[in-house]
Amino acid sequence: MNNQAENDSGAIFNSGIMYINSSTIQYNTVRTNGGGITNYGTFYLSNSTLSFNTAGSDSGSVYNSGNSDITNCNLFNNTAEYGGNLNPQLSTNTYDPTINKTPEH
């Protein structure tokens, strides 16, 4: 993916129930929240990579304002004014990602 958006999510916006597995979400830009993904519903992310996503406000990779389960994921080189990889206001969620400042080769 390589997208640009004005509001809420450079790539994927969810307000229902969403499952993402074995995916790569990268090089997306949004002016506000969630460079890669914005979630207001229920969101499951596993075995995936989010990298090089940019948000002008909160969370370069995943902006979560709902329920989420993030497991076995690599989050790296995502940038935002607040929370480069995950937004700072977390609710009832499960997070088990590998967060790297630089990609592993």
Short description:
The chain is an all-beta fold and 105 residues long. The protein is built from no helices and 13 strands.
How would you sum up this structure, described in words?
Strands 3, 4, 7, 8, 11 and 13 form a six-stranded parallel β-sheet that branches. With 105 residues, the chain is an all-beta fold. The two termini are 21 Å apart. Mean pLDDT is 78; it is low at 100-105. Helices cover 0% and strands 52% of the residues. The protein has one domain. The protein contains no helices and 13 strands.
Rounded radius of gyration (Å): 12 Å
- Portion in beta strands: over 45%
What is the number of helices? Answer: 0
The amount of helix comes to under 10%
Q: Could you tell me how far the N terminus lies from the C terminus, measured between alpha carbons in angstroms?
A: 21 Å
Q: Say how many strands there are.
A: 13
SS-based structural class? mainly beta
**Which outline best applies?**
globular
Question: Mean pLDDT score, rounded?
Answer: 78
Helix-strand topology string: EEEEEEEEEEEEE
The biggest beta sheet, please? 6 strands, parallel
